[in-house]
Amino acid sequence: MRIPSGPGPESFQAFFEALDAPVALCDPTLRLLAVNEAFHRFCADHQVTVEDVARTLSSVGVPVDNSSCDVELPFAGKPGAVVTLSRRGDVVAVRARNDPELARNRLVVAERALLEQARTEGVLLDLGRSVAEAGGEEELVAAVARGVKELFPGRSFCIRITDSRTGGLTSLYAEGRLKEGAHEPLVLLQRAVEKLNLGRAALPPGRVTVLGEVPLLFVGSTHGVSAPLVASGQLFGAINMEYPEGLDADVQHDERVLLQLASQVAVAVKNAKLIDELTFVRKYLEDLLEKANALILVANRDKQVVVFNQALSALTGFRKEDVLGKDIFWLVPESEHLRLSQVIAAAIRGESVNSFETRLLSREGHEVRVSFATSSMLAHHGEVEGVIAIGQDITVVKELEKRIIHAEKLASIGQLAASVVHEINNPMTAVATYADALLQRSRTTPGANPADQEKLRKILESSHRILRFTRDLVSYARPAQDRPERVQLNAVVDMAVGFCEHVVGQARVSVHREYSELPPLSAVRANLVQVFVNLITNACHAMPPGGSVMLSTRREGQEAVVSVRDTGTGIDPKHLQRIFEPFFTTKPEGKGTGLGLSICQGIVENHGGRLTVESTVGAGTTFSVRLPLPVE
Q1: Among 10, 40, 93, 141, which is least packed, fewest CB within 10 Å?
Q2: Average pLDDT, stretch 77-82?
């Protein structure tokens, strides 16, 4: 009977389906129109199907309108059942009776269900502990796979974990034979997406698809269920479970348990991904500090070193393990302790220092100059828990400052020397002129003493030599204009030898020359002279008295090659790769700056050439200058 403004048909439909009693509706011919869930269970208890009941009802008499009757339904080879038929108009209601035997059967079924529920809850509890203890996504997937196999034996299943932002597959586990290409894209069941309030706009296009039915993933499966892994409105993957042919299972029960499992796993996956992300960020920041191209030092409030990066290790020679946990004052000389304590105190007060120059001790015992910018390191609650210092090595800068000052002194001496040379030239020119005049007169005077003529000739030669040397010295000392000119390479090498005569004499070595004829080339004369002066000087310093410097020039293709070879002790192979580095020198303190070869290499390369070295310990060293010749 339809009650005005009463419940609609949908409400009665819901009521019908929610009844615990097994009920079915038939038409006047007893053809089944609808059955509820309890009726399905009733059929299962009697080991028959709904179709079996329908066939049996077709042979039963129909009660008259507004009447009821009990009917026994016989089933072939199985216990029968008693049902009550009630007719109201064109609708016949069928209600199964719960006799005592059926009640006992239901108790057994209920007991089995409780045991199964307890087993399921135990497995889920163990799984919860396993996923909570998982150290990463791989361990988590393995734990879930063990749980699924225990909960659903005999089923094929696939666990897919995806990135919540991109939908990209990050982990895959399959138990069974997957169809080719079946694991992507991820297909979700439409009603599951709606039930979980998963917004379709948040699903990555091309990676995730929503359909009314999920396609089967495994070869030989007849049907299956799936559950998306959703936590906090984000999709983290899905679990698909499928049934091979011949497997008898309660699909609806399996789906409920699988959804419960998926909800638990989704939270664990989300937490695992958050932990992985935090671990990655922490590792990234640690690597950033460790491998940064800057000196980074961090000390806590107790002045203990907690960060000591690779740049500091390379500079000081101390390993990180040698320094971590030690007092920061252990790294600086005692004379710097007071200044350092003031900087640390300022950092603890929250003040920063932009430029703090100090010295650090090294493993070898010498000190290195550094410049740090310091700031406070704050804890999450805002309190200062330490000081962080970021800086750079200024040893080279300080060395350069010393060299610049030294160069300025040399420049002043050079200016003084130029004045001295000018003063020498005037009387020396007079000496040369008078010596030449006396020599010419002696030659024309009959009976002149030949010994006097020889003395006058030596005076004249020495005077010209002094004049030539002073002229070349002034030319060499004059600032180069970097204007190339056509020069004879052999003459440039000879000029360099002239400048090195005093070095050769002091070292008590000999110089041998072996020149080949070379065409003129374009170069800055003074710069090339500087290169050969440096190479000849180094060769003299590398030999004991009695050694030899061999100078040779030759042509190789379109290159002019000048070789400077000595018979010294050679260069240690471990030093050979660093020989052109600025400030690298094997000479004792105060005997060399380590800049000569670096400058020479720069000059040669600016001329389009190359400076190379070959050395054998105990057999000497050869430097070769290769310069391009003009195209003929």
Answers
A1: 10
A2: 70
